Amino acid sequence: DGGITQSPKYLFRKEGQNVTLSCEQNLNHDAMYWYRQDPGQGLRLIYYSQIVNDFQKGDIAEGYSVSREKKESFPLTVTSAQKNPTAFYLCASSTRQQGRDTEAFFGQGTRLTVV
Amino acid sequence: DAKTTQPNSMESNEEEPVHLPCNHSTISGTDYIHWYRQLPSQGPEYVIHGLTSNVNNRMASLAIAEDRKSSTLILHRATLRDAAVYYCILRLTRASYDKVIFGPGTSLSVIP
Predict the structure, then answer these.
(1) Is the per-residue pLDDT at B94 higher than 80?
(2) How many CB pairs under 8 A join A and B?
(3) N or C: which end of chain A has fewer CB within 10 A?
(4) How far apart are CA A106 and CA B11, in angstroms?
(5) Strand pairing report for B84-94 and B32-38
(6) Statement: residue B111 has pLDDT above 60
(7) B75 within 8 A of B28, measured Cβ to Cβ
(8) In chain B, what residues touch A48 (CB-CB under 8 Å)?
(9) Closest CA to B36 of A73, A23, A106
């Protein structure tokens, strides 16, 4: 079945460590996104990528980095520079067909906790 | 960037219709209006999207104002499983970028 997979579901990190969250999709989508969600809040855009080897900063990119070496994969690294990394992280992908917009698919999220 | 505004919360009785409003007064001509919903600790789920015309699918209907500055998500008969946070989203598809901006969302409670 086609879909978007995030791993791990739960992740614990010590302060000062970098950690990488995985996001893989087999939907052949060009665009991929990373969002952060804090308790009781909406989603905030961290980074997005429209095509392989290209990505753009979202609204809260500081302390995060991404890569897009393959169409299927868009890993997010939470660096030690991110002051408050504990949050729920969501990855999404989408595409356009014949110039018409289509839905975005979301993964089930990774809950990162700094201990 | 265009933003959306939604009520923080709404309530509905089970099996009654629900109208969830969204304002997007700064929308541009090429921005699509998407609706997603999210249950606790899960990723958002697609509900419906449209550009100018009203849209219907098995989950809901989307009514878009003629000037496109507002839209309404219509759940025809609310069930307990419809209790979720509903996000009204603009997909910005301009020449230089393509990203999805999330509004604050409306928390829908369904009363049995």
Answers:
(1) no
(2) 61
(3) N
(4) 26
(5) antiparallel
(6) yes
(7) no
(8) 97-100
(9) A106
Is A109 in the B-facing interface, judged by CB distances under 8 Å? Answer: yes
Query: In this structure, are strands A87-94 and A105-106 parallel, antiparallel, or unpaired?
Result: antiparallel
Q: Distance (Å, rounded) from C-alpha A12 to C-alpha A115?
A: 7
Q: List the alpha helices (DSSP H) in B1-112.
A: none
Contacts of B2 (CB under 8 A, 6+ apart): B24, B26, B27, B28, B31, B90, B92, B101
Residue A53 and residue B66: Cα distance in Å, rounded? Answer: 39
Q: Give residue B27's pLDDT.
A: 87
The nearest alpha carbon in chain B to A6 belongs to B43
Residues of A in contact with B42 (CB under 8 A): 108-109
Cis peptide before B21 (omega within 30 of 0): no
